[in-house]
Amino acid sequence: MSFFWGLIAALAGNSIIGLGNCLQKYALTRGESRFKTSSNQDDTHTQPLLPTTSPVPVTYSRFKDRTWFIGISLVYLGELCGNWVALSLIPASVVTPLGILGVVVNAILAKFLLYEQISFRQTKGYIWILIGVLLTILFSATSTNSIENQLSTTSKLFAYMTQFQVILWLITILVAQCILFMMVRAKKGKSSLVLYVIMTAGFGSLTVVASKFFALLLKVWVFAPSDGNKPNLEDKIIPAILDDGSSIALIISFMAIIFILIIGIIGQETCKQFALSKYRVTQFQPMFYASHVTFVAMSGMIVFKEVGSWRSVVGFCCGIIVIVRGASNKNIQYDDDSDGIISDNDETIPTEIDSLVPEILQNSNNPRHYGALV
Fold first, then answer.
1. Is pLDDT larger for residue 45 or for residue 216?
2. 229: left (phi > 0), else alpha (psi -120 to 50), else beta?
């Protein structure tokens, strides 16, 4: 029964997250269009052939935009009330693939709010992703070792957090993120969709694992029934700390969860905002979803040992491959109707110049305009 309620919570949370992402992109796009309109009215002697250096100008502040603020609030409302509740009931490798619902909501709302058209090949890509999600849920639901039931006390939980594979996974993720950050810095301002996607997915895996530990901690402390069938924090937390023999170690471990969670949330949100300001939702979200599912699935296998028989592992890996296959569809990454076309080196090439060609031809006989263009 807990598995069913976990699925319901994850589906509801991801629907809210999809709505929040679209509202954020809508706010960024609206701010960009308003700035371009005011710039064209105020300055008529600028070089029309020079591309805009940043899709979202400096004068636009997303923190003062009510629509953007509502969008990001909905995202974290879906995370807290949906995914966090689901993580305390079902494995992380099951919760994360359910994010496909958020991708579908993004695709539907993007068509009406952002006027982003979805081609037939893009639809095929979404179908591939949906099939992969069904495979991962089918196999991961029966291949988990039920770590939620094994970690029934705070002593067992904190002892598990200090195991070798958990520490090794954390160090690997942090080192990889540092390398990716230096690669982004090396591009000197040039955008890269692939780097943003991998960095966002990496920070997202940190967030999911830390959220899983935090949800298990709350479940052990608060929701575990006491002798009187009522949760008593005084009778639970203090004896658990004293029985472990090292209250300092427990406090440090608890602070480590919070610290990793803060790093994951800030890093993921920063990379996602940069990506949303440069690329369309239908470009970024499918690639991010596939990378996020892959990272979380690998993290679940390493950290939480969510591995069953070899048949379950093969089926689960096939589901991940199908998801990546759907997200790597060229018409999801490279859309002919997009605001920017991603080239071989993943740089955004503005297409607004096409709208300037008639104006250039019209003013070509005017020496003042012609001289300005030269």
1. 216
2. left
Q: How far apart are CA 18 and CA 77, in angstroms?
A: 11
Retrieve residue 19's tokens. 């709505």
What is the token pair recorded at 243? 């029985």
User: Is residue 371, in this structure, part of any structural domain at all?
Assistant: no
Instruction: Please state, in angstroms and rounded to a whole number, the distance separating the CA atoms of residues 259 and 332.
Output: 35
Q: Which residue has the higher pLDDT, 242 or 123?
A: 123
Phi and psi of 342, rounded to 5°? Answer: -85, 120
**pTM summary value:** 0.65
Instruction: Give me the pLDDT at residue 315, please.
Output: 81
Contact between 211 and 298 (Cβ < 8 Å): no
Range of the domain at 207: 2-36+54-354
The mean of the pLDDT values for the chain is 72
State how far the Cα of 293 lies from the Cα of 165, in Å rounded to an integer.
20
Which tokens is 237 given?
């937390």
327 lies in a domain?
yes
